[in-house]
Amino acid sequence: MTSAPAAVRRHARFTVEQFHRLCDAVPEQRLELIDGEVLQVIAKGTRHTAVVHRLIAAIQACLVASPPVPLQLRVEAPLDLGPADEPEPDLALVARRDDDYWDAHPTAADTALVIEVADSSLAFDLEAKARLYGAAGIPHYWVIDVQEPQLHAVRELSSGLEAGFLAALRRAVETVLRQLPRP
After folding, report:
1. Which listed site, 34, 100, 154, 155, has its alpha carbon 20 to 30 Å from 118?
2. Average pLDDT rounded to a whole number, residues 46-66
3. How confident is the model at residue 11 (pLDDT cuts 50, 70, 90)?
4. CA triple 30-34-37, angle to 5 deg
5. What is the model's pLDDT at position 66?
6. What residues contact residue 47 under an 8 Å CB cut-off, 6+ apart?
7. CA distance 80 to 106
8. Which residue, 80, 127, 124, 83, is CA-closest to 106?
9. What is the pLDDT of residue 74?
10. What pLDDT score was predicted for residue 141?
11. Quick check: 90 and 116 in contact, CB under 8 A?
């Protein structure tokens, strides 16, 4: 019996339920489920972590400064995007709920904006993750390029966020990027 060439080997596809069982079996691993495929999350570097922390502060300030926005910021927390997708974006603005999503992760319908911070994952975030979030119907998707420092507004629909709040958020993020140390 001959084995299939590498180009035609098939990967096992997982459902979210199977993925959760796998995560329970290997809790020491950081994993996410994209298009039914289990991906190991690479370790976060210092620049990635610093940018995420600066963005958290800037976004929280926007949430507090504006008229009440019915959103909350989630950090590196799963989104339920269907039976074969459970990514963990760096940042997501989701509908505020009293139970803080105690029994279920936010869905695409709950999600107004996803932000991925890319230090070494720019191509993946601009391509695969853009397809994933777009297919799920998430109205706003931004990628922060840590290397260049710049904001890629990959997807911006007219729905999801009030225009004034979105503009303030964009200004805050761009200010963070301008203040980053240059190599």
Report:
1. 100
2. 93
3. low
4. 85
5. 66
6. 119, 146
7. 6
8. 80
9. 97
10. 97
11. yes
